Amino acid sequence: MDTMTLWHLTGWEFAALAFAALLVGFSKTAVSGANTVSLAVFAAVLPARASTGVLLPILIAGDVLAVLTYRRHAHWPTLWRLFPAVAAGVAVGTLFLVWADDGVVRTSIGAILLLMAGVTVWRRRTAGAAEPEPDPVTSRAGRIKARSYGVLGGFTTMVANAGGPVMSLYLLSAGFRKLGFLGTSAFFFLIVNVSKVPFSAGLGLIDGRSLLLDAALVVFVVPGALIGKWAVDRIDQRLFEQLVIAATVLGGLQLLLR
C-alpha cells in the first residue's frame, strides 16, 4: 500500500501538501511567518490533530537547513531568555491537546495569531523605527514581554506548530534585522521542535503512518529553502517585516474561517 492510499489522498491533495512542504523550506530561510500558510494547508488536507504530527518532522528538516545557512547570525542571549518560558508553554499546550478537539485548536490559534499581529502593528506605529541591533533585555518590562511571548510561542508551537508567527512578532518587536532574525529563529525552532518530538509521539501524533508521509514530502523542503536563500537578499527590511505580519494575519484568518 503506497502513502497516498494509506492516507486516502488524491493527486491534488498530495500536490497541495508538497507545495506546503516547499513553503516550509522557503519560510525557514526567507519569510518566517509564511509558515502559517503551510500549517493551514496541512490542516485542510489532513485531520487537524494528525496534521501537526505529520508537519513536525518536515519543520525540523527546514530548521536544519536554516541553521546551516544562518548559524553565524544567532543572538544567543535572546534564546536563553526565551527557553524557560517556552518550556512552560509547551507543557500547557500538551495538556491542552489532551482534551481539545480540532475546532477548539483552530479557533484558539487563529485568535492568538491575529491578536499578536495587531499588537505588533500598534507597537511599531507608536514606537517608531526599531534599533539596528537587539540589546540585552534587562528591564522589568522587557523580561515580562520575553516571558509572555515565550509562553505563547511554546503553547502555539505545541498545539498546532504555529509558534513561528508568535516568535517572529517578538523578534521584530525586539529590533532584529533580517539576518539576526533568521539566525536566531533558526536555532530557536530547531531546539524547540526537536524537544516536542517525545510529546507528540506520546500523544500518538507521530507514528509509522505519519513518518511514511513525511518521507514522501521532506524532499520538497530543500528546493524551498534554496529559493528562500536566493530571495532573502532581494527583500528589503521594510518589505520583509510587512511580509511576516501579512503571512501571520493570513494564517490566523484561515484557521478562524475554516
From TrEMBL:
Top-rank lineage group of the source organism: Bacteria
Transmembrane segments: 82-99, 105-122, 149-173, 179-199, 211-232
Entry keyword Ribonucleoprotein: no
Topological type in the membrane: Multi-pass membrane protein
Protein name as catalogued: Probable membrane transporter protein
Cellular localisation: Cell membrane
Major subcellular site: membrane
